[in-house]
Specification:
alpha+beta, four-stranded antiparallel beta sheet, 4 helices
Length: about 270
């Protein structure tokens, strides 16, 4: 059994503790997970990321929901598709996915005013062993950090968990992009760094806090470059591959509840 932590005092963060609020968060997470499952069979060699974006918008709107990214601070598409050396915020385009690519597909939807947010990295065809190891490390580090949390944990513990897991593997953990609180707003407190920043020690995961964990792991160094000329795309500074997985979490009185589990995607312990 996990040892229960004594509640600590920290910054006041948004919390969702009524049954209706938590049900709203759960519904948003379930729908967002279903969107990834709908896209999954199409994320193959020869498909363009523009086509993935079209499918995502159609499925979301057909269910009466809203693509959260479309128009957000001027973002021009419904999903983010980050291929190979793209760390995050890759804009879908008309270039077909190629054998050996890796691509992170990041979806966010608004369901009855609540936000759901999650992402996966997909291996396209016959990928290199480096690509598989990197993808596995990103996936495992996310789960490792989730399983080390309990009510009243400090956010800094997420950064410690991920860094301690990744460092022996020799990969870089991106520091200048992070996870975030989420609920009635897309981005809210707390910020969720994937390395242990001191300021995160004061952010306590009380029951009712909703947030994402989304480590971006680089095959080479941690440094990034961008946004590029399109105003969004961020790439690894050294041109190496980058992989990312993301789940949305609701901290409950019993521990972290994962809101964005898919039916057909990789589950905890999956081997790529």
């Amino acid at each position: 059994m996990r040892r229960l932590l004594t509640p600590r005092r920290g910054r006041k963060l948004p919390t969702y503790n009524s049954p209706d609020e938590r049900d709203g968060l759960r519904a948003a997470g379930r729908f967002n997970a279903s969107l990834l499952d709908v896209l999954r069979p199409h994320i193959v060699e020869g498909t363009t990321t523009d086509e993935l974006d079209r499918i995502a918008e159609e499925y979301t709107r057909d269910h009466g929901h809203i693509p959260a990214c479309l128009g957000y601070n001027g973002y021009p598409k419904c999903i983010c598709t980050s291929v190979n050396e793209v760390v995050c915020h890759g804009i879908p385009n008309d270039v077909p996915l190629r054998n050996g690519d890796i691509v992170n597909v990041d979806c966010t939807t608004i369901v009855d005013g609540w936000y759901g947010d999650s992402s996966e990295t997909f291996l396209i065809g016959d990928c290199s062993e480096h690509a598989r190891r990197l993808t596995q490390a990103s996936f495992d580090s996310m789960w490792h950090s989730i399983r080390n949390l309990q009510p009243y944990s400090s956010v800094i513990e997420i950064g410690f968990s991920i860094t301690r897991f990744i460092q022996p593997l020799g990969f870089g953990v991106v520091e200048n992009f992070q996870g975030h609180g989420i609920g009635r707003r897309f981005h809210q407190e707390p910020g969720i760094p994937h390395v242990p920043f001191r300021r995160s020690r004061a952010d306590i995961l009380y029951p009712g806090v909703s947030f994402t964990i989304e480590p971006m792991i680089n095959l080479g160094g941690k440094e990034t470059r961008g946004p590029l000329e399109d105003g969004w795309t961020v790439v690894t500074r050294d041109g190496s591959l980058s992989a990312q997985f993301e789940h949305q979490i609701l901290m409950t009185e019993e521990g972290p509840e994962i809101l964005t589990l898919t039916e057909n995607g990789p589950q905890e312990g999956h081997q790529f």
